[in-house]
């Protein structure tokens, strides 16, 4: 159903409120926002602006920051803290601009919801590949974030391009595929009103169908939403969490629930650390104009952009025998399985990095992993931390996962060795 002019005006006005809530923090540096043209395939004629801080490292990280309806890349640059955080942590930021009427992104067409299918996502991925090549960015540290329409696009980019984006943070958005339409319109009232309720499996299947045959790691996702959002209503918060926990093969039951600020309720899934697979922040009493105080920095921490990402520089600390705990959860099917592995440091010593050794039962072969590297792919294997999750404080937990094939043997490893010490 095509939205009427009156409804469209009200929707765009509501979405624009996001801009008013974002703290203006222009970067205190000599670097400037620059428009880039001729960056590659761009079927919808998106505009591209780029911010490269002074003094970036040899292999910088890359963030795509996607604006709200009626916004633009330059407006999102000047109205959010991402550029000043980029100055602080030395990562590059791409600011796309939508060019269609209303300046909303296409998150509904069949082309947008399919890997390399066309429309806005293809143009944004072209921007990413241009910057990766020109600035030699680290492809393992490519992320997306956005507000409202940009949050919807963040879900779309992570769902359709898991080979490009490693994590995302979505502020007041909807699940991947929730806004899908087939009548040529760009507004899905059922989804916007929080009436598209599905099972975690159904939501996860939408993501998996976007890139048939893909078996690699899936991006981590952080979701923010206000309980009083009247534009993209609050049920979309839990539907996003259902989707991304299913994509990661995780339980919908949180591993941790806390309140980092008085009206924030934070839930983490697949671990308790900052860079878990899925994190949700529910904002009590907040509407679609999501408040900004502390949010950009929290998103940067979740993405891992507040660290150098170069891996541990200190030798691993060995915990005493038994001073670590490992839980190992499998989700199996006829010829394969995913495993979610949680490591808890039960010692009084902080670990500067970790490697977990275990023996895969006969007939099991790892095909992909996330939040860790695993080698070899069968037999006695070792999982080693990624560049962003090596530090493990006393009492803290982290999680990694992998996908594997099996020949009918779906038993679990009998024992685990963390940094040379046996775990319980």
UniProtKB/TrEMBL annotation:
Residues 1-31 form the signal peptide. One of its GO terms (biological process) is carbohydrate metabolic process. This is Poly(Hydroxyalkanoate) depolymerase family esterase. InterPro entries: AB_hydrolase_fold, CBD2, CBM2/CBM3_carb-bd_dom_sf, CBM2_carb-bd_dom_sf, Esterase_phb, Plant_Biomass_Hydrol_Est. Residues 317-424 form the CBM2 domain. PANTHER family: FERULOYL ESTERASE, UNNAMED PRODUCT-RELATED. SUPFAM superfamilies: alpha/beta-Hydrolases, Carbohydrate-binding domain. Keywords: Hydrolase, Signal. GO terms for cellular component: extracellular region. The keyword Signal applies. GO terms for molecular function: hydrolase activity, hydrolyzing O-glycosyl compounds; polysaccharide binding.
């Amino acid at each position: 159903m095509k939205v009427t002019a009156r409804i469209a005006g009200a929707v765009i006005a509501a979405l624009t409120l996001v801009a008013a809530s974002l703290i203006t923090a222009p970067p205190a540096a000599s670097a400037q926002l620059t428009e880039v043209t001729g960056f590659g395939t761009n079927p919808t004629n998106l505009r591209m602006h780029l911010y490269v801080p002074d003094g970036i490292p040899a292999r910088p990280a890359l963030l795509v920051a996607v604006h709200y309806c009626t916004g633009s890349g330059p407006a999102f640059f000047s109205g959010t803290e991402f550029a000043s955080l980029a100055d602080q942590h030395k990562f590059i930021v791409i600011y796309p601009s939508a060019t269609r009427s209303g300046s909303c992104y296409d998150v509904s067409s069949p082309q947008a919801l399919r890997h390399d299918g066309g429309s806005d996502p293809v143009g944004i991925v072209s921007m990413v590949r241009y910057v990766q090549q020109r600035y030699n960015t680290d492809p393992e540290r490519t992320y997306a974030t956005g507000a409202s329409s940009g949050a919807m696009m963040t879900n779309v980019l992570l769902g359709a391009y898991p080979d490009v984006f490693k994590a995302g943070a979505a502020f007041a958005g909807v699940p991947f595929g929730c806004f899908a339409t087939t009548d040529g319109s760009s507004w899905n009232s059922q989804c916007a009103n929080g009436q598209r309720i599905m099972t975690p499996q159904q939501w996860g299947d939408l993501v998996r169908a976007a890139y048939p045959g893909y078996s690699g790691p899936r991006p981590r996702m952080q979701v923010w939403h206000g309980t009083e959002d009247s534009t993209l209503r609050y049920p979309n918060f839990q539907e996003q969490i259902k989707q991304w926990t299913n994509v990661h093969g995780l339980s919908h039951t949180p591993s941790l629930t806390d309140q980092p600020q008085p009206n924030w309720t934070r839930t983490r899934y697949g671990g308790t650390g900052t860079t878990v697979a899925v994190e949700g922040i529910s904002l009590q009493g907040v509407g679609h104009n999501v408040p900004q105080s502390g949010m950009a920095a929290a998103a940067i921490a979740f993405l891992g952009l507040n660290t150098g990402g170069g891996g541990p520089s200190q030798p691993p600390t060995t915990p005493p025998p038994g001073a670590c705990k490992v839980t190992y959860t499998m989700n199996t099917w006829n010829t394969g399985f995913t495993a979610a592995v949680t490591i808890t440091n039960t010692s009084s010593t902080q670990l500067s990095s970790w490697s977990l050794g275990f023996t895969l039962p006969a007939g099991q072969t790892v095909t992909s992993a996330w939040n860790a590297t695993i080698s070899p792919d069968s037999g006695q294997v070792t999982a080693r931390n990624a560049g962003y999750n090596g530090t493990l404080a006393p009492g803290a937990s982290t999680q990694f996962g992998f996908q594997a094939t099996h020949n009918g043997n779906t038993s679990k490893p009998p024992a685990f060795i963390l940094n040379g010490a046996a775990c319980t």
